[in-house]
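Researcher: Next entry in the queue.
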Amino acid sequence: MASHIVGYPRVGPKRELKFALESFWDGKSSAEDLKKVAADLRASTWKQQSDAGIKYIPSNTFSYYDQVLDTTATLGAVPPRYGWTGGEIGFDTYFSMARGNATLPAMEMTKWFDTNYHFIVPELGPEINFAYSSHKAVEEYKEAKALGIDTVPVFVGPVSYLLLSKAAKGVDKSFSLLSLLPKVLAVYKEVIADLKAAGAQFIQFDEPTLVLDLEPHKLQAFTDAYEQLAPAFEGLHVLVETYFADVPAENYKTLTSLAGVAAYGFDLVRGTKTLDLIKAGFPSGKWIFAGVVDGRNIWANDLAASLSTLEALAGIVGKERIVVSTSSSLLHTAVDLVNETKLDDEIKSWLAFAAQKVVEVNALANALAGNKDEAFFAANAAAQASRKTSPRVTNEAVQKAAAALKGSDHRRATNVSARLDAQQKKLNLPILPTTTIGSFPQTVELRRVRREFKAKKISEEEYIKAIKEEIRKVVELQEELDIDVLVHGEPERNDMVEYFGEQLSGFAFTANGWVQSYGSRCVKPPIIYGDVSRPKAMTVFWSTLAQSFTKRPMKGMLTGPVTILNWSFVRVDQPRSETCYQIALAIKDEVEDLEKGGIGVIQIDEAALREGLPLRKSEHAHYLDWAVHSFRITNVGVQDTTQIHTHMCYSNFNDIIHSIIDMDADVITIENSRSDEKLLSVFREGVVYGAGIGPGVYDIHSPRIPSTEEIADRINKMLAVLEKNILWVNPDCGLKTRKYSEVKPALLNVVAAAKQIRNELAK
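Model: Structure for this entry, 763 residues:
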């Protein structure tokens, strides 16, 4: 039986891509240096899969930023503001679209479906002229072929590309992005011809939007697109890959009827209901690429269960028509478990990272073909049994406490308007108060201090002294800038989720379990293997220390339960809601200890609330019910005078605005500027918001420094739809990825703009 990988991590086992990108952006290395690192990473991943016995190995899945931006480059869909005049798109234009530059803002960035991966949103309009402008796909195919490896070039499918795009600024609202399909297909045909000429035999089109609830005209676009492409497919095997959820019944009919398509890929981990559709009918002579190995989590596959699924499929379509695959790209999991030399042996036996999942895929393919590795399957069965029975997984007291939550909806006794009045009497803030989201730049020196403390090269006393000094500097800077509500800058934290997970029971941590979020941004998700509780206070020492340096309000900074859940690798032996309630109780203890310590403003970030929203509308209400409830649990016990903030970023929040209101936070800060103020439209449409709100006034993921005038203009746009007494002024997100040379002038302009508007309002 054949085996296939949907996609593979590109960051490298020790973040080689991250460091190469940052070195290039900082001018410390050349474009050729960056390309060399990329080529080495590609070669090693292709060889690894080939050596493991994988038949269908993906290419064109490597990206310097994200695969949607790569498609934008291939199509030459560059917004006019970047001044591109044609020809092959180079790094200058590519990275300007992704990150902005000194004079131009970046394109919008949002989440890739319900993952923590991000993509750059294409900006399209009726006047755009697509042109084949990046030959990356064919170059990488030839690169692999020169190494003796025949790969499957992978593309974002043409219809999904358009459905994931947005109309460019100024384009009439009635414009249909799908009307651009003929123009887009003309370029796809050129790319396909190029690949055929280079010797490609198989091509993969990722059409993940087929798992969404789609209107008939969108499904028709798939039919039309593949009918037009079918002549170009002659001589090729074409795979259309779906992932992240079940394929709805109508979508399944459309998918399995697409012209010129030889194979269909299904996520059979998150999309188990798709099996029923396959059993009810599958086109003869076609292949199923069966995604039975989870591409989004790090647990070892239950090989016996997966083999049973594959055998059931074989009874429907025949073994010769099944290709064993991953459920999605392995981009969403860590790279290689072999690098985890310090991980607990028992927990390690329960895990499989990307390299191990490749082995699992091939082992299942061999077993389906009758060549079962009995020793490998026996070891896997033993690990599965160990995880189910290990005493470290279960904490009876935690389970009882979480179960007891179900009798209440945990709302604060006083309404938000009365609470805001009580808080204002205590805080005495000006109109349009300024604040930041939490983190300040993570300098090389700061990272060195944390690294040396973890390695026990410096004492705890030396570590505390260094962090204390960093906090003092951050507080002094904010006072110098005249910011109203301060933060301590989070110098003790490498990552907002990892920091809390390290101090909670039921979590395990890796040394090199890095996962790419976008570009050079990598995260190291904690592993939730058991019941969660808080053994002791986590942030009180640092927050109260920071408050002692100033008379201004100092925010206590916490990560909320839903975000900790969604940004972790989560146990699969109980519902996610149960795990979230356990985390909520732990954060509740921390909130109340911060309040006792004299912290009057506490921010509980829920940056990933929208990210966890299921892809199917029928499942939204259940998720939002327990997710919002979990947030309310964290702060139900505080006094009216304690102001609870939350923060959200880089998702489309308009469709869940009523659930956001139901969170009952006193103040919400939310990304707004990079998405071109999309958030404000919901208020223009009549949604009434009575709590404090701070739509971001500048994009922190770009090195560009916005002017005072630009920020003031944004504030005025907000005042057109929001009351002045509830509006806050703040950046889109935390500042940890930026440099002080960028942060200082940007925040200076933020404060100046707020003061300018205050003066205008006073007149």
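Model: The first helix runs from residue 16 to 25.
Researcher: Noted, moving on.
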